[in-house]
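Try it yourself: sequence plus iron/sulfur cluster, in.
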Amino acid sequence: MVVKTLPEIQVKKGEPPYKIWIFEPGEKKELPLIFNLRQLAEQRRPALLPGHRMCAGCAAPIVVKLASFAFRGPTIVVTATGCLEVSTTIYPYTSWALPWIHNAFENAAATASGIEAAIKAMKKTGRLKYENVDVVVFAGDGGTYDIGFQALSGMAERGHDVLYILYDNEAYMNTGIQRSGGTPKYAWTTTSPVGRVIPGKSENKKPIADIMVAHRIPYVATATPAHWMDLVKKVRKGIEVNGPAFIHALSSCDRGWRHEESISVEVLRRAVDTCYFPLWEWSPETGYLLTDRSLVIARNPSLKQPIEKFLEVQGRFRHLLRPENKELVKQLQEYVDATWNDLLKRASNAPR
Amino acid sequence: MSSLKSWKEIPMGGVAYRLSTDVKTGDWRALKPVIDQNKCTKCMICWLFCPDMSIIWDGEKVYVNYDYCKGCGICANECPVKAISMVPELGE
Ligand SMILES: Cc1ncc(C[n+]2csc(CCOP(=O)(O)OP(=O)(O)O)c2C)c(N)n1
Ligand code: SF4
Ligand code: SF4
Ligand code: SF4
Ligand SMILES: [Mg+2]
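Structure, out:
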């Protein structure tokens, strides 16, 4: 029944632009990481095909695209309900160039756990056609911080060999921008509307990555697609470790964050430059380690930008720039400074 | 879609059986990225960040696949040498 109709585009060098990932049985795959962009553009094809219906300028497909450049071979992707799932698989179409499953909103981690257990069992009884099959989850903040949390925590506790990537657009975007446990304080959403009663969401963002560190799983990291090499390296590490890994990737949403479509990557850079979203990784052996731009800022604190640089380009924070709300911005700045200083204390590679 | 299939005719488990490359999202576009080939250094930054896999590197030059490009302008914003300009689409 499968109808394969990839557009045929002639290239003079390298792979055709759009490809389905196919691995022959028995094929042992350890695809090397490529950091030379022209080489990457010739040799690697992302797990996502065009024609998906994510909004113009959405960062979530960039997260998936970059992450898939770090996949090492046969991989099964699980997605929780949310923009990424809905917009990449509008029936009867799929944008996924590899095996993909959606089950429900709350159980991506449970579904992945089952797949991983089945892979293990098939390997044991000699029914697996490949040396290894990796399982990677992509889930939104609603599907991770809130409704999917018990499935995720259970997966971590049981020790399933799954990489769980949270693409965090800081609200329930697919159903119309409702606040989640990942929405930052004072952000406008449709369920934390700005008005005379409240200045946006009243609570702080849940420290989800630190909560995953507390599970003492083999690998936890934060990332953004703007810092692409850092993201690619972290995804590969998360796949390589034996056991659960968690990557918290910040993912801008021009609809919900109310910013220009063209600055989706820029706004993520600002999130890191202001230390609103520091880049780090953690493993039981190394503890917290700053990475990429955040390590640079730790070594040269004058590079740290004021939080306004992150707020000023987003309509969801527009009210904060009004003079009467100066105090709220000051509070946000103090919160960012406190969490950043706390991280500097914990990170063993931060200058003392 | 010509005629809707009944539940007996669709694949078990709601399996999607067509590729989204059949869906040409290029008609969403209001602004169109145009690459100045004289300025382009072939650095592939635009190829890397395009959320719609619409930048093609054919081994010799970088060009836009307008079948899918939604005109977000990320490529133009990220291009280190500003070789991409966003020009309004003139509707038919
Ligand atoms: C059990 C259940 N409750 C509610 C919904 C409706 N629903 C679909 S997508 C979505 C929001 C998803 O938010 P998030 O996980 O943050 O992903 P995003 O859309 O923001 O990428 C909701 C509430 C659902 N599909 N299933
Ligand atoms: S609503 Fe936001 S997260 Fe969803 S597709 Fe649009 S830009 Fe992406
Ligand atoms: S980012 Fe600019 S210079 Fe680099 S390949 Fe694209 S158009 Fe050319
Ligand atoms: S405008 Fe957006 S969709 Fe079009 S090529 Fe540039 S980055 Fe890709
Ligand atoms: Mg969300």
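One thing you can check immediately is this: Chain B has a mean pLDDT of 93.
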